[in-house]
Specification:
- With 576 residues, this protein is α/β, with parallel strands linked by helices.
- Helices cover 43% and strands 16% of the residues.
- The chain folds into 3 domains: 165 residues, Rossmann fold (3-Layer(aba) Sandwich); 153 residues, 3-Layer(aba) Sandwich (Rossmann fold), CATH 3.40.50.1220; 192 residues, 3-Layer(aba) Sandwich (Rossmann fold), CATH 3.40.50.
- The radius of gyration is 25 Å and the shape is globular.
- 54% of the residues are buried.
């Protein structure tokens, strides 16, 4: 080594991440992380300082989901504990976020060092890869290992723990680069191509099928195969369903798209799944949402085939009748070679969807009419429908909460049938973690600065993560937050009223909080909305203000179909 100038371990970390192509880092700046922050500054990398480590994690997750490129969440030892919920949320969505902990000193490890915690062990069950770096010469190596784990196979979050004494220690700039790989830019992600014999067997099953359906999951999104999925559905006339708790793979107006594979959020999916003789599940898991592949969700009379791009994903799908290891794009490309079509079968599903939509519009029209006659508060479904009607086709809709989330899912399917297009949709993932909505809305605005981004959040969800709105003000990313304010954890209250012997709810109420005033105090725009007639004009004023805004909308609590199913012990719901 010929260098005479050395740099800190934190800068080695920054350089390694920059070489991988990382664009965005999120942190709550702390002393343990200062060498890394200096390195990011020298490398001219974007760093957003957040009001809380959980917010930093959710923002990194949101950026990663939208860009499909890893972002970094950098925290200190005590901040690591705050970031754990963000690890959980990212894990549920297979989001390859890189979590970095500036941890307690390695020299005194096990002796009760300042802020010493076993972050590696805590993170291990939540991420694909968790490691502590014990040699500063190997920082670049372990960044490379973590990046590979995050992006290959099934993607997912990873965790690197870098002790503070290594952070501050000095090393030559090319430390660790004397071994292969000498250059550590992000490589092309390896893809699994299907075994020809197994592929032929699955294709023959499809050719013989009278009523096939596709249930598409996370693997389609992370392999960037959603356009190919649409092409297959449209060419072959195969109905396509989306796994619950995952951002939409197809736009709501896509010809083959039917809605969620959830018997309660979209009831016609039950008829389709139970009438289908062949179910192709692409890029998804037979987990609780799919009742682990069992009846009464999937009947014994249906053939269930799982196609996944990694052997790790297939391990979850042992219940399938057939499995195929294949990148979703590769498998879908093979389907495009077929000449068969299932036009009558798709028409039947479209007619079922049409009737479902018409029934729901009739229901909400009657409910809204009664609300007006009785001078009652707005129905949460009506709230979501009215908001979406004001959005342009490139605007983004985010929703967060319990019943608020579920009603908005129904509204999206209803209004999509009417031809409504949106630029994108985001919401809590597989773990249904409340409080992610504001962070996701900020992420969507950062990636789509010219578009309106509107969040519909339950009041409980906002109280769980609303502090993150400060980042919207700080980064000048104006979003619109619409709070479905029913005065408590309504989703839980309704379950309690069906479960408790006295028929009452307990410990779920909030006081009347003036959320709109909070936004005004931060320098934003706010309005209280108490009737449906006030909603649209208020939304237009909020958008035209150009500020981060809040509409505090008083809604009545209405139990959603999925919560009713869970509390009434009917067909298994995906949240059981």
């Amino acid at each position: 080594m010929n260098q005479t100038i050395k740099i800190r371990g934190g800068e080695i970390l920054a350089r390694a991440l920059k070489e991988k192509g990382v664009d965005d880092i999120f942190t709550l700046a702390g002393g343990f992380c200062n060498p890394a922050l200096e390195g990011f500054m020298k490398c001219q990398m974007s760093v957003i300082n957040c009001p809380h480590e959980q917010v930093a994690g959710h923002l990194a997750d949101g950026y990663t989901r939208i860009s499909r490129k890893p972002s970094v969440c950098l925290v200190g030892p005590e901040g690591f504990a705050n970031a754990v919920p963000a690890m959980l949320e990212a894990s549920g969505e297979r989001s390859p976020v890189i979590f970095v902990t500036g941890s307690s000193t390695l020299k005194r490890q096990g002796a009760g060092g300042f802020k010493e915690i076993d972050d590696v062990s805590i993170a291990k069950p939540l991420v694909k890869y968790s490691i502590q770096i014990t040699d500063g010469e190997r920082i670049s190596e372990f960044v490379d290992r973590a990046w590979t784990a995050a992006t290959t196979g099934y993607p997912g979050p990873v965790h690197i723990s870098l002790p503070v004494d290594i952070m501050f220690s000095s090393f030559y700039p090319d430390a660790g680069l004397e071994e292969r790989p000498f250059f550590r830019k992000a490589k092309t992600i390896p893809k699994a191509w299907p075994d020809p014999l197994v592929l032929k067997k699955v294709i023959n099953l499809l050719k013989k099928s009278k009523s096939p359906i596709i249930i598409a999951g996370h693997g389609v999104w992370w392999s960037k195969s959603e356009e190919r999925l649409k092409e297959v559905g449209e060419k072959l006339s195969i109905p396509i369903f989306n796994v619950p708790y995952h951002q939409k793979l197809l736009s709501e107006d896509s010809k083959p798209y039917m809605g969620l594979a959830d018997f309660h959020q979209y009831h016609p999916s039950k008829d389709a799944i139970h009438s289908s003789d062949l179910i192709l599940m692409i890029g998804g898991r037979l987990d609780n949402q799919m009742n682990f592949g069992n009846p009464p969700f999937f009947l014994k009379t249906s053939l269930l085939v799982c196609i996944n791009g990694s052997h790790e994903e297939l391990e979850y799908n042992r219940a399938a009748d057939e499995i195929l290891l294949s990148d979703p794009w590769a498998f879908l490309s093979e389907l495009l070679k077929l000449d068969e079509t299932w036009d009558d079968w798709l028409i039947l599903q479209k007619n079922n969807r049409k009737k479902w939509v018409e029934d729901w519009f009739k229901h909400i029209e009657e409910e809204t009419k009664k609300d007006k006659q009785n001078n009652d508060k707005m129905h949460p479904l009506q709230l979501s429908l009215d908001v979406q009607n004001q959005l342009n086709e490139k605007d983004w809709l985010i929703f967060d909460g319990g019943n608020t989330h579920f009603w908005s899912e129904i509204a999206v399917n209803m209004i999509g049938w009417k031809g409504k297009k949106l630029g994108g949709i985001m919401h809590p993932g597989n773990y249904s973690l409340l409080g992610v909505g504001v962070s996701f809305a900020i992420s969507a605005k950062a990636k789509n600065p010219k578009q309106n981004v509107v969040l519909i959040s339950g009041d409980g969800a906002f109280l769980s993560g609303g502090l993150s709105v400060e980042a919207a003000f700080q980064e000048n990313l104006p979003i619109i937050v619409i709070i479905d304010n029913n005065g408590g954890l309504d989703c839980i209250s309704q379950q309690q009223e069906r479960l408790f012997e006295n028929g009452k709810h307990f410990a779920t109420d909030f006081r009347d909080i003036p959320y709109h005033k909070m936004f005004e105090g931060l320098g934003g725009y706010g309005e209280l909305v108490e009737t449906r007639e006030q909603l649209v004009p208020a939304l237009k004023r909020a958008i035209s203000s150009g500020k981060t805004a809040c509409l505090n909308v008083k809604c009545r609590g209405v139990i959603s179909p999925i919560v009713a199913a869970t509390s009434d012990k009917r067909d298994k719901a995906s949240i059981e």
